[in-house]
Amino acid sequence: MSAHVHCPYCSVGQETAEYSDYRPFYVNCSDCTRRFIVEPVRNGVVVYRDGEAPCCSDPECRETEMGDSGQD
Ligand SMILES: [Zn+2]
Description:
Blueprint: E1 4-6, E2 13-15, E3 25-28, E4 35-41, E5 44-49, H1 59-66
Antiparallel strand pairs: 1-2, 3-4, 4-5
């Protein structure tokens, strides 16, 4: 699946890449090229600015703090 999201910096709408689980991932805005975080949730997705997500919703923080290698 994929989701339609709005960039938290410039508000441009765009489609995310395909995803298959609820692991948060980074998106580079198609317009301003800044990086933000998309976290799939049950009813859609949540968007965070890079650095503003709680650790469990931050791909890099998960990797460092929770040993989440990105592999299942
Ligand atoms: Zn943008």
